[in-house]
Structure formats: structure tokens, C-alpha cells
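Methods — Computational structure assignment.
A single polypeptide chain was analysed. Its primary sequence is given first, followed by the predicted tertiary structure written as C-alpha cells.
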Amino acid sequence: MALGTATASYDMRFDSGRICLDLVATTHPEERLDSAARLRNWITGSGLVPPGTPLTAVDTAWLASFRELRGHVAQLVRGELDGRPADAALARVNAVALGTPPAPWAVRADDGSLRRRLHAPPGCPELLSVVARDAVDLLTDPVAGASLRQCEGDNCPIVYLDTSRGRRRRWCSSEVCGNRERVARHRRRAALARA
């Protein structure tokens, strides 16, 4: 499945580098998945489904399932970063990954180009399977696993994949936490200059 874009959509963030990490990021700075409509927006914005995919079945049961998987993925990723294996979370993510992901089809668009569509409207277990498989792929890939970073911003819990040259990225987003840090640094320098 395609990864989300680096820009926010529907006030969600899609800049962590992986769909599973983008799901984990929906808790910061506040709960972003607080309704079925917001979950539908996240599913579409993350690239989990192709544009135009009907998501009429998304309801509060889907919301509960996505939030549950989010909690397990967060425990697993943070456990790996901190050297504290979260085997109960690993078992749950593995179980969800066993599901069958939605089947993609190539269809001809009006202009003659091929576009990706899903064979049938996706169900919740199929989409959860895609997110769980993304987490499994991320954490079992030594290169990707070594690129996992915790944002250095004050009180920012976001985990992201550092794909920057030299692997020196410090913040989940240069525009969010990076800007805050630069402003704080400027204020400290200005205060020292006045003193």
C-alpha cells in the first residue's frame, strides 16, 4: 500500500515514514481518532486505500479496532526503541497481520492510464492487516529498524523513520517540533544577550 504524504490532511499527520507509525502518531498532541468520520479520513489520507475507495462501513467498531491495534503497535515500537521487548503486543500485532489484505486491481482510467483500485470495498480486518504487516515489516527490517527515532522535541512522543542524509534528523517534523526548538533557542540567546 502507498504511504501517506508528508503534509497534514484532515488535521492528521502523515510524516513519520510508515503507515503504522502514522497510526501511532494519531494520539499527539491529542486524540485524533475520536470518531468514525475521523478514522475514515485517516484511512484515506494515509494512503491505506486508493483515492475514491468507498468506506461506508466505517463505524465505532472499526474505531475501537484501529485504536486497539494502535496501542499494540505503539507498545511494540517503543519497546524495541527502549530495549524492553513487548511480547504481548508482538503476539497481538502478529495475529492481526495474519488477516488477508484487500486485493488490489489495476483498472483503466478515462485517459487510458492504469489506476489502482481495490477489488471490493475493504473490511476492517483487511485494513488492520495492512497496518500490522507494515509494523512487522518495519521491525524485522534491520535497516529500517536502525532508522527508528524518537522525536527530541519537548514532550513529543512521536516515533519516525529517519531517512535523512546522514541520519541526523532530530525532530518528527521540522515545521512543528523543529520550529519550536529553533524559537526556544533564539529566545535563550536573546535573553543571554540582554543579560
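Note: The longest strand covers residues 104-108.
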